[in-house]
Amino acid sequence: MSIDQNIFFTSEDDLVRIDKLLNKKFETSSRTYFQYLIENSFVLVNGKAVKKSFIPKIDDEIEVFFKALPNTDLKPQKMDFDILFEDEHIIAINKPAGLVVHPGAGNWENTFVNGLLYHCKDLIPVKDDIRPGIVHRLDKDTSGVLLAAKTNKAHQNLIEQFKLRKVIKKYLAVAFGNVENQTIDSPIKRDKIFRKKMSVDFDGKNASTQILTIDRKDDLSLVLAMPKTGRTHQIRVHLKSINSPILGDCVYGTESVNKKYRAKRQFLHALSLELLHPIDNKPLKIEAPMAEDLKKFIEKFFEKKVFVP
Q: Is 139 among the catalytic positions?
């Protein structure tokens, strides 16, 4: 079971029951929904299950695992996937920017999972599981290689490979500023003030990203980012931490710079995944062509128009 959201309780929320607090923080979901999560131990405070009447204290850490209600069926929906690789065990697509990976509170349809359920007729979700087949995630506005499992055996193997950091991940990004080759080793945790954001915090979880600069032009850098760990928003947060946010990033970037270059979404592309096939154990490399908007931008602003990982 993976964490969908972390909240750090602050003084502004003093003396509020946990079901009311969560309803306040996630307005798209009802208080009844959060009571269901709490009653089924899908909400933990400092790692422990609590009752819905529990009142958090300052600095408590609340973990929320969004699950489907018993009467919430995941709806298979037909989608035109750009399939990069597929066999009877796994599928990899070139995810377009704007596609949400899996359903969640207030967003139960038109996600990759909905399309996956339609495409893979034999993929049957486990009760209350809103992430069937999912082994890793890409942010909504990130394009590129997205891998999923079609069988339980493949799912377990891939989860283990990601967990043990055996999967080599390469991302292409356009960053603001003059970025030097480096490895960023900075712990990450959820921001205590802006809860939808992550931030570098030395009380956070270990996070490491290798950055290689491919080309530079004026105040922009074309970089290859290779995350060794898999923290939420890791590449975006790490580049922000060296004052070189990803162009077009509306959360960690600079609005004036995004407007200057007319970047309508974060220019971050999951270029490739290298792993072992979960069944035959043979090396497998899956690459995704760049999204058209990113490709055109790179061709316009950089000298190195062709990049092969």
A: yes
